[in-house]
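Minutes, project check-in

Agenda point 3 was the complex the collaborators sent over. CS summarized: two entities, 982 residues total, and the question is how they sit relative to each other. Sequences were read into the notes so everyone works from the same version.
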Amino acid sequence: MGAMSKVKFGIVVFPGSNCDHDAYNVARHVMNQDAKFIWHKESSLGDADVIILPGGFSYGDYLRTGAIARFSPVMKEVVQFAKNGGTVIGICNGFQILLEAGLLPGVMLRNSSLQFVCKFIYLKVENPLTRFTSQCERGEVLKIPIAHGDGNYFADAGTIASLHEHNQIVFRYCSGSGEIDDVANPNGSLLNIAGIMNEEGNVLGMMPHPERASEPMLGSADGKKIFQSMIESLVLS
Amino acid sequence: MISPNRAEPEVTRELALHHGLTDEEYDKVLSILGRTPTYTELGIYSVMWSEHCSYKNSIALLKTLPRSGGRLLVSAGEENAGLVDIGDGLAVAFKIESHNHPSAVEPYQGAATGVGGIMRDIFTMGARPIAALNSLRFGELSDSRARQLFRGVVKGIGDYGNSFGVPTVAGEVYFNKFYQGNPLVNAMAVGVVKHSDVASATAHGVGNSVMIVGSATGRDGIHGATFASEEISEKSESKRPSVQVGDPFTEKLLLEATLEVIRAGYLIGIQDMGAAGITCSTMEMSAKGKSGMRVDLDKVPVRESEMSAYEIMLSESQERMLLVVKKGCEEQVKSIFDKWDLHSVVIGEVTNDGIVRVFKGGELKAEVPAESLVLGGGAPVYIRNAAEPAYIRDRKAMDFQSLRSIPDYGRSIKTLLASPNIASKRWVFEQYDSMVRTNTSVLPGSDAAVVRIKGTEKFLAMTTDCNGRYVYLSPRKGAEIAVAEAARNVVCSGATPIGITNCLNFGNPYKPESFWQFKEAVAGIGYACRVFNTPVTGGNVSFYNESPESSIYPTPVIGMVGLIENRFHITTAAFKNPGDDIILLGKNRGDINGSEYLQQLFGFAGTDAPHFDIEEERRIQECCLKLIQRNLVASAHDVSDGGIAIAIAEAAIFSSFGCAVQIPNEKSLRNDFLLFGEEQSRIIITCPRDNQREVTTLIRQSNVDYCLLGVVTQEDKVSINEIAILDGEELREVYSDSLGKRMSS
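CS then shared the predicted structure for the full assembly.
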């Protein structure tokens, strides 16, 4: 891709998605790239360079979060796109859908408080050598909000060991000054895990919402770094 | 001609009374129809003439409120919600509504469907909802039932709004034993619409199709409106089936499909189905369009088998709409709803004789003149007897000087900050998604929330306010204060107030003392709205908020919206920079009457609402807004519950700074009265030292009292008159964790 052309973001819309417009707004108006919505019944992703699975409550999430969305026609294409090395980011409900679809390992449990929680939290960048975090320093602390009822990440010991081994843990919840402890853990996630990627490094799932923290007026613009990283990785490739 | 159906109960006067109609009302039904009503018709009249749908005991007084003027485009009562012009070809629609009774017996679903109902009121006008607010009242948290209700209501509001995808940005919660048996759950929604996309709730054009869209109809919520029109009693538990069940996912689909169909131009009119379901929407749309309808209930998608005409007409199943579609556009409408996997079925057509005819199984089940049923038409209008209650008539002036003094002022500050009425509502608002749609510029917790309108340079500030104790002590003054405080909160956020919606929660209107409170409060709201030039866009009346234990404090909740035309005018309560001067707009009078201090430390409500002078209030608000709009101030915070000491502490708590304050006390007021008195019309602002001259000059020109209070400090310590010196971090912890601790204990 040439340095002059714009990156094409494809934002998948499931019935019940509600952060689709927010992701679109950042891609299109804040980052000044191309963006389009992809209705879940479609059977092609078109010419998208990046697929965003946005937050929300797909199909109402009356069953398990993301459990029905993964059967949407478009998900077959998303899985194929990912297998071909395409860049996929799942945010919040999108992360949950990636877990259900088997593109990422582990599961999401109810928050340990048993309550939905919406607030700004801090996030430590554990791995800056990814196409999602290249604009961050190792150990950098980002201020980004969360908004979920099921963000309590869990995986068995073998999976965790494998995540460590391949540097797949990208973000962990931390304090404002970067300490990773129980106080800074908003949902009971194992090891304060907030975001992981697949072994190949082209699929990221994260519970925090970078699209809600990409304009200073909204309380933080740290989330822009994640969009910027994805754009740079594509423009330079 | 209608023939009686043997499967249905025989309609008698006794059955009519059992349905909640009075003798006089039943006689009126007989005379309108010229015959005995059918069972279905009896159901229709009883629900349409219930207090909830007809406003029969309130409408005469509501008409005295300012319902036009200013930026108002659609007057109150004309449509589902009023519309206020905000320029750029846009209008804002907003409304507040109660769901008290259902929440009292089923807090989770009661509150959830309250949110769903008010959202539909907004998007049925073609407006996209951009924010939700609420106003809640419960009994004391020491009571386990109150905690259970509180927990259920908050979860219900959160689960519905979060899934629906509209941010819940502001609200208020108060706890008092008078709400023990009868909690209040008022939900407000704000939406934005292009002038050209506004939809109307009307039916006209003979032969145009009547369609029902959205969820299938079940037996839930039958007679919900009637249930809401009586006092809560031991029997209320048995009314649990009158509570509807919410489905935010379907509502989200309904929102997208509805906005799409409105913009496509296929509609004559649209109305959501809330109270009284198909009955209310068919009757009101026909009456508004001076038309009529022929409706075949066999075509209505139902969830349960064997539903009778009576049940289908009275069902309050959620997430449904009634559409009047231009003849020939039915398939296009259907294809839009199909895309969203929603039902859309033609169930009838528009006629022109003013009669709504309802068929089921080929039989005519109801044949009623629409006009005879609706508010503003044949629905009864009463003016009830009002009598000043003894507690007000016989009250004596009280000498508060004899009150025991509590010399540890720092401790009193902490007690107040920890009290659930003042403490941070973080435990509540963190359960709400306050950020979705990425417009929330000022998050919950400041004086008012601020939400941007994408595609413009504009922002809306919004708040809900009412101190029920003030209204109880002095209904007229208390209601004026509710409007004034809402306006003050909006002004402190940098906005010009543009209108209010109100939710009037009162007791039984057939009790002269209750009705007197209502009458006085409406007079107060009307007067204050005229002074602040904020017309009433609409709202809701909830009577019968009584339970065997008690009657509630009369609680006329004010939902106010203000307009900010420039992002640099957005202002919050938090101190911003060490070294900034702290200035009080207004005057300290040490009026402890009606205060949270009296309530929390002495268990006494007081004898009157605190000092309030509406002209002084108006001058102070105008002055504050001018200071903000000239970019002279760094922060602004209104002085309310807990008085000036709490307002100062909060401004420090919201920041990471402290302050050194010396409140002047020339009249040697008692220290606790000075610190905690709640006399109205005070705002704490801060400004850079360099702006001080210009600020004080403008204040003097505005004919407003003021005094210099002190300075914002780097040192994280709140020091007030050297009689209360408190650690900032400690105050933050007390303020922010108290409510959560009470809920987890």
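Noted in discussion: The longest strand of chain A covers residues 117-125.
Follow-up: revisit at the next meeting once the mutant set is ready.
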